Amino acid sequence: MDLVLINKIAITLIIPIGLWLAFWVYFADRKNKINQTFFVFVFTAVIWMSLDFATSFPSLLPYALLMARIEWAFISVCIVFAYFLSVYFPRESKRSPVLDKTVIGIGIIFFLLSLFTSTVIKSIEIHHLGGARYVLGMGGITFLIIMIPFAIVVLLNIFKKYFTLSRSEKIRTQYFLVGLSIYVIANLIFNIGLMLFIREYPIALTYLGTFSGILFFGFTAYAIVKKELFDIKVALTSVFVSIIAILLFVDMFLFTDILWIRALKGFTLFVFLIAGYLLIKSVLREIKQREVIAKMAEGLEIKVQERTGELQKKVEQLEKTNRLIVGRELKMVDLKKSVRDLEKRLEEHGEESEEK
Predict the structure, then answer these.
(1) DSSP secondary structure string for all residues of 97-162
(2) Do residues 22 and 43 make contact, with C-beta atoms less than 8 angstroms apart?
């Protein structure tokens, strides 16, 4: 398996796709803070991924240390804008001026340390399986430690406003979180997990975790720009079907030389595409049925509310009528009592007159 070739194909696709996503979101609404922040975030991330991969080229190894330091400088900028993206997306949340200044200050410090000192990137080691691997200094280790509370802050910014969002905003947030989850899981697998269990771990595999960021960019860009979003189940199903189809296609042409095996894999790909299409269609049908049921439930709820309102008005009218009737009866009782008292007084006055 030629992992270097796969990585070259991947980075060749990722750079233009990432830049296109950045400019697509930016020009969709240039005055919107979300669009502006996403543009800078993706632009710096694409440069970071490109420099990370560039260290695998033998001809560029003399410049690997410089590229690694520039890469980490861009990581610092990217992380600052990742924080502000979590503040603005999908709706701007209440901000802490102290936290904003702290994040910006940390970003500037590590940008300068990465670019102009050996505090973050101490040196470069040439890996025996190909490519270069940088050695972190105390600044780099500190930077990684700081990333833990930073990641918690970013997630809290998203989750603390999730339950106050509208339905469409919640769907946008789900797109963001799904893309972020794919990126995190891919990095945990290719950059940490496999490296711990495979002794002769090919360094080329580590780039797969980095390249998965394009899915995060795609999910977030779609959530920012599109007014009407597919249900997240449709998006996920479509993405996974597409990824598997691409892998089958690559395997068929790059790693198969025998004609009849290639034909068999081509038939398998054809069957998978049909099955994937039917799967996506069934998911769409299920969501459509659910929307119809939701609309029916909403209509029934409106009718119940209207009927409840009518009954409430009738109850209020009955209560008003009852109060009038009761009030009249009480007045009649008082009037009868007054008449009896008056009659009694007249009788007493008549008796007194007779005595005189």
Answers:
(1) HHHHHHHHHHHHHHHHHHHH-SSSEEEEEE-TTSSEEEEE-HHHHHHHHHHHHHHHHHHHHHHTTG
(2) yes
Q: Which amino acid is it at 96?
A: S
Q: 122 and 135 in contact (C-beta within 8 Å)?
A: yes
Angle between helices 64-88 and 33-54 (to 10 degrees): 160
Cβ burial of 11 (10 Å; 0-12, 13-18, 19+) is: buried
∠ CA 350-352-356, rounded to 5°? 115
Q: Which long-range contacts (CB under 8 A, 24 or more apart) does 4-8 make?
A: 4/56, 4/130, 4/204, 5/254, 6/204, 6/250, 6/254, 7/53, 7/56, 7/204, 7/207, 7/208, 7/211
**Terminal CA-CA length for the chain:** 137
Taking the model in full, what pTM does it have? 0.69
Residues 6+ apart with CB under 8 A from 181: none
In 3D space, the residue among 42, 115, 120, 136 whose CA is nearest the CA of residue 85 turns out to be 42
Closest C-alpha to 140, from 202, 207, 73: 73
Q: Which two tokens stand for residue 111?
A: 């940008």
pLDDT digits (tens, 9 = 90+) for 23-80: 999 998 888 999 999 999 999 999 988 887 777 776 777 788 888 899 899 999 999 9
Say if residues 115 and 73 touch (Cβ distance below 8 Å): yes
Token pair for residue 355? 């005595």
3-state secondary structure of 200: coil
Domains and CATH numbers, the chain: 3-229 (1.20.1070)
